[in-house]
Amino acid sequence: MAKLWSLALALLVGAGCWAAPVSAQSSKVEELEREISTLRSEVDTLKKVEREGQGGDPAVMTSLKKHVFAWATEDGKFSFTMNFRVQVRLTYNDERGDDVEDPTSGATNGKDYTHFNIRRFKWSASGNIFEKEFKYMFVVRLNAGSSDNMIEDVVFTWAKYQFLNVSAGQVKVPFNHSFMTSSGAQQFVDRSIVSDVFNQGWGKGIWINGTIGETVPWVKYWFGIFNGVIANTAGDFRNSDQTIRSQTFSNFVDADLFPALRVETHPLGEVPAGMTDMRGADEYDKVLFSVGLALNWLQGRFNNSALYSDGVAPGAPGSGRFRTAFDTIALTLDGHFRWHGLSVNIEWIWRHTNFHNTGLLEGNNITRGRNRPGDMDDNGFLFEVGYFILPKQLDVAIRWADVNADEYWAGGTTSKPFALRPDSSELGLCVGYYIAGNNLKIQMDFTYISHQLAFFTATSSGGSLGSSPNGDSFESRSLTSLANETSDWTNVWQLRIQLQWIF
To answer: In CATH terms, is domain 74-502 a member of 1.20.200.10?
Structure first.
């Protein structure tokens, strides 16, 4: 009996010793389960962005997309992509005047300089709001000289269909290709004299655009109605409507709207934006080319008695508008070729301006007896060819550009010595090294621009509206050169080195 009790006691003690670690192990399991539950809760919390007063909205994802920053909600209904573009430039400018008859009377030299400049500093953003079809875009010039011209692009687009997008706001008027191409995607350090003279600037209005063709963009089109604001009332008959203006009737705020149309075809596949062939060795064997055609009609009023006079009229119009008016039709045809790192860009531009008086002066025929010009025809031609010696990394390019400005008679002259701007030609060479494509590159170009001068009496300041790369006015021809039917010239040599980064 004593042995039985001893065995029972031993079993009881052994069971107690075995139960203790089992109980401890159970406690550890429960603790681990609690920690796992906590971690799961934290992960779920990280998947959401809790905004005050909005509860559990879809999460916002942040990513680095094509070297720029992008934010978007998980459902894609809201997105925001932004970047900064900076161009730092060093320019060496050497200007020489040349009077072929008498170098001492008409030649002007000395406008030589070496200068560092922040050529561009821009902030851009784009994305969609509420739904993927409601898109927006804006570009702000952070180094603008005035708050009135800081805004470049502000666009809101309904883009539900590929073949039809409807937009409103301010954008580059769809005209010449080189101006429509971003300054950050140029082959040279900057655009040519042809673009400087003939581009239609920015316009405020409403437009439609789209692409016809699923895999091949057989037709890309833009058609818009813009305000239409003359670039310079002294005689620069093209659109320029970037400045913020007050909502008050004037010679700039009127009913003379500006229609603009551009059509392109890309029959072998879309030619990527830019002036170069940035495709890599795995895809640049495919031949690409496109052809574009653009047409617009600008009308308005201007005040320049030397070019087209009001004449004698009893009092001013009640509205305060100028009595001299113009109609300008501008046409451009361009072609673009890409293959194996080779890029070819060609633009031809023609512009016709017709002058007339309005109101009480309508039909007074002040052009009788070669007194004033009745119309003008200007044209320009651009040819750029480049080649990537190292694909997407090192390229070289050449440029030829020509501006032919119409001359006119005034004051009964038997010849046409007067002009709004000089006949100009540009020859350029460029080398570019692309560290990260257009997002980080350094370019150097050398350009020679020759201006054939005329009597620039058709501007209010007495200087030319021309296309000087440094923005200076040109000197008029000398009396000696006029008498001998020879020309004065201003020749400009420029060396430019530019560093660009976009992020």
So the answer is: no
